[in-house]
Specification:
Elements: E1 3-4, E2 16-19, E3 27-30, H1 41-52, H2 72-80, H3 93-109, E4 119-123, H4 126-147, E5 156-160, H5 165-173, E6 177-181, H6 192-197, E7 203-209, H7 221-235, E8 241-244, H8 252-255, E9 270-271, E10 287-291, E11 308-310
Parallel strand pairs: 5-6, 5-7, 7-8
Antiparallel strand pairs: 1-2, 2-3, 4-10, 8-11, 9-10
Length: 315
């Protein structure tokens, strides 16, 4: 049942979608309103299915930084859970328990001091996870500044120009100045020196990317954390680090297990990795937020997102 696409297929003013069944009379379905007599379920499916065929093939998208394929059994599980409102923890307790088991698995994978008591949650995609992480950074900064009697009207966030656009959206949505570090020479991501140079008492955090979508490189998370520790010792500025691990948080522990980018880094706290970096799900369907437990040394507990984040506790 192919769709009839006239030459003005991009004309939003066109009223109907023309459906040409192989057998039978052509069917016309309103484009921007409900049909007077309804539409047969098979016809509705075919219309949407054929329209979406015009999109690109995710398996051929070599520019993507997330999963474009997953096991058929995972698709079956997702379809079986489509009718569950997982935010209702009382109605779906087993789903909630599985969510927390995933949080503990990720906490263990990223070397949290006490994975069995880590705090975390799932999100609807990695962008939402980043929004939660950024908001946690801002709120933590505000609470500390108010306790000091200092103003809270000029927050900023330091990151490289290679970050995903969701971070620029976060800055716009929540009135945070985005201090973007440009690339220079053969440096295609953020460096510790450039990050520290742009920090001040109003910096709510530094975003480090574990797997830049420009060239796939890992930003030097451990070096950035160490540089911020020195900054804290010299000037007293407590600047946390959020690691956006959408492209590498689920890969690095296996391909480079000695790389210290996770909770092993000095003073690290919040980890907010997106599952979009794994074969667990297809792009943008699930993100994850996590944090180390409050009783672990030099850590501060909180929630965050689809990346991996770490923060130093207030001292």
């Amino acid at each position: 049942m192919p769709l009839d696409h006239p030459s003005d297929a991009n004309d939003t003013g066109r009223r109907d979608v023309a459906v040409n069944p192989v057998l039978g009379e052509p069917v016309r379905i309103p484009r921007n309103r409900l049909a007077e007599d309804g539409v047969d379920a098979d016809t509705a499916y075919q219309v949407v299915h054929d329209e979406l065929m015009l999109d690109g093939n995710a398996r051929l998208n070599l520019a993507t930084f997330v999963t474009t394929w997953m096991e058929p059994t995972a698709r079956v599980l997702m379809a079986e859970c489509a009718d569950k409102n997982m935010i209702d923890k009382d109605e779906y307790p087993r789903t909630a328990d599985l969510e927390q088991r995933c949080v503990r698995i990720l906490a263990d994978l990223w070397h949290a001091a006490d994975p069995d008591h880590a705090t975390g949650c799932s999100t609807t995609g990695s962008s939402e996870a980043c929004m939660l992480a950024g908001l946690a950074l801002k709120r933590r900064w505000q609470h500390r500044r108010r306790a000091e009697g200092a103003p809270t009207d000029r927050p900023n966030l330091v990151m490289g120009v290679n970050v995903q656009v969701c971070w620029e959206k976060f800055a716009d949505y929540w009135d945070v100045e985005a201090r973007l570090v440009p690339m220079e020479g053969d440096r295609f991501h953020l460096s510790a020196e450039e990050a520290v140079r742009r920090c001040d008492e109003n910096t709510i955090g530094v975003v480090a990317v574990l797997g830049s979508t420009f060239d796939g490189s890992y930003e030097p998370v451990a070096d950035i954390c160490a540089a911020l520790d020195r900054l804290h010792a010299e000037l007293g500025w407590d600047v946390p680090v959020h690691v956006d691990g959408a492209s590498g948080a689920m890969i690095a522990p296996f391909c480079d297990p000695e790389l210290e980018w996770d909770f092993r880094c000095p003073g690290s706290l919040r980890s907010t990795p997106p599952v979009t970096s794994t074969a667990w799900c297809t792009p943008a369907s699930v993100g994850w937020c996590g944090a180390t437990p409050t009783r672990c040394p030099r850590t501060w507990s909180s929630r965050s997102t689809t990346s991996v984040a770490r923060c130093r506790r207030s001292r």
